[in-house]
Amino acid sequence: MGRDAADGGETSFLLTDVVGSVRLWEQHPGLMAGVMAEHDAVVAAAVEAHAGAVVRSRGEGDSIFAVFADAADAVTCACRVQRDVAAHAWPRGIELRLRAAVSTGESQVREGEHYGETVNRCARLRSVCPPGQVLVGERAAEAARDRLPADITLRDLGHYRLRDLSRPERVHQLLHAALPDEGVRLSTNHNLPAPVSRFIGRERQLEEVADLLGRSRLLTLTGAGGCGKSRLATEYALDHAADYADGAWLVDLAGLADPDLIAATAASVLAVPEEPGRALVDTLGAWAAQREVLLLIDNCEHLLAGAGQFVAALLRGSPRLRVVATSREPLGVPGETTYRVPSMAMPAPDVDDASSLLQSEAVRLFVDRAVALEPAFAVDDADAGAIGEICRRLDGIPLAIELAAARVKVLSPAQIAAKLSDRFRLLTGGSRLSLPRQQTLLATVNWSHDLLDGEEATLLRRLSVFAGGWSLDAAEAVCEGEPIEAVRVLDVIEQLVAKSLVVADTGRGPVRYHMLETIREFARQKLIESGEADGLRGRHLDWFLAMAERTEQDLLHGSQVSWPELDADHDNLRAALEWSLVASEGKQPALRLAGALTEFWDLRCFLAEGRRWLELALAHDADAPPPSRAKALCALGLLVSHQGDYATARGHFAEGLELARTAGDSRIVATGLGSVGWLEWSEGNNEVAQRHLEEGVDLARELGDRWLLARALYLLCHVFAAQNSPLSDVVAREALGLARELGEKSIEGRGLYFLGVTAIQRGEYDAARALLEQSVALAREVGDRWQAPWSLSFIGAIGMLTGHFDEALPALEESLEISRETGNTWCTARCLATLSWVRLLGGGDLEAAEALALQSLDLSRSIGARIDTGLARTLLGEFARVRGNAAAALELHAGALDDAIALNSPWSIASCLDRLARLALDAGADERATMLLAAAAAMREDNNCAIPPISAHERERCVEAARGRLSEAEFEAAWSGGRALSLEAARRIAVAA
Prior knowledge:
Structural class: alpha/beta
Number of strands: 16
Number of helices: 44
CATH topology of the largest domain: Alpha-Beta Plaits
């Protein structure tokens, strides 16, 4: 081993553990003692071969802890351990999979045991390592990289923050041909923002928060604005996200003014879809009841009652949910524990030397922020007294200290302290000691505001009109005007950023800006006092109305490039809608804005919110011209229909179409007919749907609008495709030609998609895959995140239908990821069902496959998607049959047949009849089974439907079984009789017990 690693000092550690060892001990109690003895021997042999030593008795279950003097030996050994364990022939097919991690650094040895930060880091690294792989820490990678065997390389995964460790770790993945090279994602399951500055001190507060939350399911952090509630809560969540199986999620209420939007905001963060006829908060409660999750609800004070009711509803019936809320006062919810966030520890008045001063949290914060702004800043004894005075005068409030530190570029600490003294005296009438913290923070902000020049002060108050942040373009358009020219807005914003009054969000994409909420409230009051508020809100409305109407065209034309812009400004759009309901300019801003946002709300599944705004706008602009009201009514009908409330939707469509026809607006009529046709198709009323859609196509032709015609034809494809009609190809090809003429790649992609779907139904799988892959490529090119997952889902379906399950999985997983991200509930349901088929037919975990089918059924029912409800019922019928529950299988397959008949889908009807025939064979009803198999064959022949390869063998087995059980004459008679059956008669025979 060279230098003895057992002596401590610079040492390399290898830690491993067995994945799922508890489950293995429960499943194989008589074998696992021997298995683990073999495991220990395999690992020990590898460690010994690489000059290491195994440390026993660490009390960590089925783990191994080994030490090495050389990092390269440790890394090479880790690779060999994984290879040897994977290749070993374990008893009775038991499969052992290990996690492994290597770290290098200083350690301390007591009684033969190693302790210290390096050991802790190695243990944390092992805990996030995927099964079968090896993760290597930064120092180990640096020490070993140039001395590893040629077949071992290290992939740099970047810096990650590991649980309970304040310093991030640069993590590397060990790569070897014998180890899995799956993508490693170490970031825990959360949406928590990455810290943009160092977290100073507060160790005791983090421990207290963890202790309190261990004893309470709701912990509310209270305190004055700027005391650090949000930062403390976020740091706790970052440290403990990995403790929760379903992650940690931040729901920020700062940008909301309406408590009715709390549930919608949370649902958007958590990707929980709405369910028709059910309150969204109840849907969220049901979601939380099934999960172990940490929810951080930030900035509750201005929506106190609504936030309290929302949290109480979620906690009810969700035993594994933990909530951390931040508010200036308690939520008032039963069972709530409150924790007042204290000020940062401040230096005593008699401390005036730099070394002693830096023991204070408040001073360390001041110095850290000052150095970030002015790298040359340094603390010496001459400034120590002034810095201590600043922190004490500001009561240790973090925001106030940061604002003060921002002045070091233009003022010395002594000057800052002097100005603070003057300002406090002015605001308190000379009594500084009696100030509450809120007033202290107000004094700090007021003082900071008074240091601004005229342009800065004016722009600060004008920027408060924005909710949730803003872009530079928006600021220039809304806030320019005497004394600020548009070209000066950027310069002044930069000055406000430098003075910590505005925050620049420099993540991906164009830079956006926002204010801390306390600053925004202060600035908003200044805006009201200035008399500019109404004018600014009007300009704000004009800007976002123009944005909505511009992006509406992008979304209508199938491009989702505007989604990020609309998502980023969702709070601003809500604020504009609120003001539009106050404005009475005669321009119907409420109706125009709500109508323009309908496509966004629909595609992003903000159905309840969009419905509410449209209803309010229609009531507010009751005297609007008929075309405006007609468009809004049809838009409302669309959202309501997608909630599954078809009766109400039909009423809105009828009223809207009547107004549009009376006004002679053929464009609105054509668009509305498309939506009505979609509704009727969704309920299986294909003849009614076809009539409406064909009228819409005729109107589009009369208008000479090729884009509207292409969209109308695209909708008509749904009806023909559901019936496996050859007209689907004809219509899709016409839409495809129009799209190519217009250069509308999104519509072209959808035409290719429908051609691919119909090719699948004819059994032309290679051609279908090529068409769908072209559709995916076009969707990606134009950013169409609606079409891409649909085309991917059918590529996955081809893999499933042809038995190529490994090819199916990547497409289905990508489709599911995009669908969930975009709130595409329908496609999510379809993907879940297809994944369930893959698991079922591919011989996977039946429990997991059935769970996927149940999720698909729930989602399909929630949106009234009958075709997918039938698909999920078929799956569940198969699971019931596999488990021997014939009665349940018959009921489920009969329900699926009814769904297929209602949708007039020959392909699905034939598949259902085949499965019901198999149930009849299982029950010994051989003649009935033969008739159903014959009826399915006739259905396929009459409608040019191919039988999927994955089903062909099973169907042939059933036919041969029936033929073998019946005489030749009996079989021929039953077969002939089955081919002659009407669909109604076939159904009666199929569902007979």
